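User: What would this chain look like folded?
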Amino acid sequence: MTTRDDARGLQVARRFGAIAFVTVLTAIAAQVSIPLPFTPVPFTFQPMIVLLGGAALGARLGMTSQLLYLALGVAGLPVFAASATLPPGVARLLGPTGGYLMSYPFAAFVAGWLAEGGLDRRYVTSVIAMAAGLAVIFTGGVLWLAFFVQPSQGLTGALAAGFFPFVVADLLKLLVAAGVMPGLWWLTERRDSQDLQQ
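Assistant: Here's the prediction, encoded as structure tokens.
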């Protein structure tokens, strides 16, 4: 017989496993890194994993998965994008991509919070939830570039280096990723409906 404590322990283990899974996916996505000659910011698939993880886990757990990811990177584990020019470890957070990285927990929280409100159940509203999270990432990254990395070039230079080269590709990825959560809800509801009919 399963006791209440056993059930609670199983629930905690599942939550930790889900957090760890999204953290690992974020680290894997970071390794798909494409350096661009006209900007110090590489192209990666991390933002989509951050947003999907937030939507799937919810605000608090999604944020926790990204805080864990940053903690592993700060500790020196090779979870950040491989780069010959970007610094490793904690110094990565002070480099040109630091603003993007430090915005990940907040972006996951926003996407997760909106998903918890039901925006992940329909495609259009799922796009809105993920676009809000993506806006957090771009805002953090561009402001970091503008004020801490290349202040002499100002906001215009930061947008040229950290927004315009990526926004179209990220929006296209977002349009694909936004279909994941509504698709999962549809499959879940269909399975539950079939179970009730049996």
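The two ends are 26 Å apart (CA to CA). If you want, I can go into more detail on any region.
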